[in-house]
Amino acid sequence: MKKIFLSIALVSLLASCKDDFLDIKEEGVIEASTFFTTEQDAMNGTNAIYSFLRSWDNSAFPYQFVFGVPADDVVKGSNPGDASFINEYDNFTYTVSNDGVRGYWIGQWQAVNRANQVISKVPGIEMNADLKNRLVAEAKMLRAYFYFNLVRIYGGVPIFDGLQTNYNIPRNSVDEVYNFIISDLTSAAAVLPQSYGAADLGRVTKGAALGLLSKVYLYKKDWQKAYDTTNQVIALGYGLDPDFNHLFRPAGEFGSESVFEVNCQCSAQFGGSQYAEVQGVRNQFGWGFFTPSQALENAFEPGDIRKELTILRNGEITPEGDLIAMGDPQSVTTYNQKVYVPKALNNNACGYGSIQNIRILRFAEILLINAEAANELGNTAAAITNLNKVRTRAQLPGTTASTQTALRAAIWHERRVELALEGDRFVDLVRTGQAATVLTPYGFKAGKNELFPIPLDVINESNGLFTQNPGY
């Protein structure tokens, strides 16, 4: 694994290395040994973690390969001949040598490394103590997010709590990784503020740390803690945006529903994001990949306004007045409307859709986590109340489910349609034990495809310390 982690470390905030061939000074790169010395260095180092959130590896193709396409709600998109290799993720034929599997792995470890630089180096800087503590808490919150991604996709992974002298260590267990995540989020939540001023929008908050913590408890099936933690988030004053379309447009960014949101403002420093561009209407607003499936269309109940505000169609006129072109007849005809940026608001300096923020965690999901946990605890009334809050915004009647089993299915269904195309469907199917039933027709193999493989070169370079996931 040494080679993998050295390649990860070769970013502008890199731990020094004794290998001679790495000692050559690269122009424009600041060595970590001379970097973390001032308050501004601490801020810049923390900002480098945030910049990864909008990066290609975290929000574009590699992200969609593992969280998007394997679900039944997303298809490759574009036309049949364009990037046909993506079909490997749709039919579960990817292998240990697949570039996408490896790319997502490397990207998340790059992000962990950036967070560990801040967590390890910033405490030694002479600077404002409150700011110091806050930046370390931000780094811990973000490190927890990256580890949450890793453990859901690859299973148990090595835990690196700070900078290491030896990165070639065995995988920790899934439970150990989750406990590490919980520790980071609990620590961060105790320090982070509830909100920031306009200049710092996008920095993680107490609500973001508690919200992600509640989702971790959901995955661990620790229902009492998931319920209690979501109640803490609810008490912080979040609310549903009454307009589902407004929620995903630039005007709805950092609104009442925003719990954890990536600021993708186009700037000279960060250059926007390609999150929206790769999914935008082909030959008009983007590349046309990762588009809604017919199965997703069929999942919406009659009268659910979210259907037409989630699925963008060729030939339609958007609420903002843009005519969606008919496009190439060989290409798909529907797209993800949640990433649509109205033409009048697009900033051409950073590419189409670069200003579109990435909503990682919304208050609607907090309500649904609360409802699921309440139902599993036997608190039917609380489960129905929060489930119906989400349904009411979608202009649907209250649920008719009343038993625990029926409510469980209703809540799972509501997650599917409320969070459609937001990267939760595949991992939700695995988490809830539905993957084999729903995804077997696509090629899913139970006991194997719940996790992705550890990249082959990582296995080879571990000198026997790393074990591969079952079935690969």
TrEMBL record:
- Carries keyword Manganese? no
- GO CC terms in record: cell outer membrane
Q: In the UniProt record, does the keyword Transferase occur?
A: no
Q: Which UniProt keywords apply?
A: Cell outer membrane, Membrane, Signal
Note the InterPro entries from the entry.
Answer: SusD-like_N (IPR033985), SusD_RagB_dom (IPR012944), TPR-like_helical_dom_sf (IPR011990)
Subcellular location(s) per record: Cell outer membrane
Instruction: Enumerate the spans annotated as RagB/SusD domain.
Output: 293-472
Query: The SusD-like N-terminal domain covers which part of the protein?
Result: 81-218
Its domain of life?
Bacteria
The family classification in the record reads: Belongs to the SusD family.
This chain belongs to the protein called Membrane protein
Provenance organism: Chryseobacterium lathyri
